[in-house]
Amino acid sequence: MISNLEYYRAFYYVASLESFSAAAEQLHLTQSAISQSVKKLEDALSCKLFVRNAKKTLLTGEGKQLYQHVKNAFSEFQSGENAVSDMMLHRRKEIKIGATETTIRFFLPEYLHNWEAEHPDSRLTLVGSTTSDLCEMLKSHAIEQAFLISPLPEEFRDAFQLKKIGELSDVPVVSKAFFKTMGYGKSHRFTIQELQQFPLIFVSEENSVRKLFDQWFLTEHCIFHPQYTVPHMGLVHSLIHQGLGIGFLPLPYAEEAIKNEGMIQLKTTTRPETRTVYLAF
Predict the structure, then answer these.
(1) N or C: which terminus of the chain carries fewer CB neighbours within 10 A?
(2) Cα gap 243→241, rounded to integer Å
(3) Terminal CA-to-CA distance of the chain, rounded, Å?
(4) 60 secondary structure, DSSP code
(5) 239 falls in which pLDDT band (50, 70, 90)?
(6) Is 196 exposed, middle or buried, given 0-12, 13-18 or 19+ CB atoms closer than 10 A?
(7) Is the backbone peptide bond immediately before 151 cis, with ω within 30 degrees of 0?
(8) Is the pLDDT of residue 92 over 60?
(9) Global pTM?
C-alpha cells in the first residue's frame, strides 16, 4: 500500500483538472512538485497513469481504474470533514442555560431579549429545575450558565462566578375568600405566631428557600411547619387560589396574583431574609 497520501492527492487533482499546471495552482505547489508526486506513484504501481497531448492531460486505462477509487476516497474525506465541521459549529452555537421557576417567569425574559440581539446566530436551550439541581448541572458542565436564587447550597457557593442581577422578597398571600374568614383588617400586621394559627402553604424541603423560612420562624422561637407542601411555586399559587390557606410567594409572583386574581398580600411585623438572584457561570 502506498503510504504517502500526497501522491494520491496530486494524482486526484491532475486527473480531475486534466492539467498538471492547474493542479499545482489549486494545491499551491510548484508544477515540478506535482510531477514528482505523480511519477513516484507511477513507479510504486509500475504503470503509467497519464498521457499528454497538446491540449490536456488524459488518464490511461490504469489511471481511469485508479481514479474511480481515489475519487470515492476523497469524497469520503470531504464528507467526514463536513460532518466534523457541522458538529463543531453546532457545539459552538448551542448554549444551555438553567433557570429556576421564579427566574423563568420574572428575570429570564429580559435576558433572552438581550441574548437574541447580541447572539443572533446562537441556539439557546433552556433547562428548568431547582437551584440545587442547577448547581449540580453547572458543576458537571451539563449547562453553561444558570439563574440561581440564594441561598445557594454550601458546597457550591465558591464553585462558580456569580453576577448579581436582582433581589427577591417573599410575602404571605391569601385569596379574598380565605381572608374574610381570618377576622383581621387589611392594615393588620401579622406576627409569626398569628400566621401559625392558619394553614400555611409552601414548597417542599428540597427547595433551598425553605432554610430561610426555618430561620425566620426561629427568630420568633417558632417552628416553620406548613400544612401543605408542594414541589414548586406554581402549586403554592394554585392552593392559595383555592382558598386553602396562607401561601408564601416571591413578591413579583404575588403582585401578579394580586393584580390578576384579586389576592391579598398580608402585612407582617418581620420578614424573611431577602434573597439574591444571580447569573452563575
Answers:
(1) N
(2) 5
(3) 51
(4) -
(5) very high
(6) middle
(7) yes
(8) no
(9) 0.61
What percentage of the chain carries pLDDT values higher than 90? 49
Q: Would you mind telling me the total number of residues written for the chain in this entry?
A: 281
Radius of gyration of the chain (CA): 35
Checking 149-152 for CB contacts under 8 A at 24+ apart, the result is 149/100, 149/102, 149/103, 149/208, 149/209, 149/275, 149/276, 149/277, 149/278, 150/208, 150/275, 150/276, 150/277, 150/278, 151/208, 151/209, 151/211, 151/212, 151/275, 152/208, 152/278
**Amino acid in position 209:** V
Closest CA to 226 of 193, 249, 204: 204
Neighbours of 187 (CB within 10 A): 6
Detail the DSSP E strand segments found in 112-198: 123-128, 145-149, 162-168, 170-174, 189-190
Predicted confidence (pLDDT) per residue in 59-87, tens digit = 999 999 999 999 988 888 888 888 777 76
**Which of 52, 64, 73 lies closest to 2, judged by CA?**
73
β-sheet with 123-128: strand ranges across: 123-128, 94-99, 145-149, 275-280, 162-168
| In contact, 147 and 99? CB cutoff 8 Å | yes
> In sequence order, what are the beta bridge partners of 174?
264
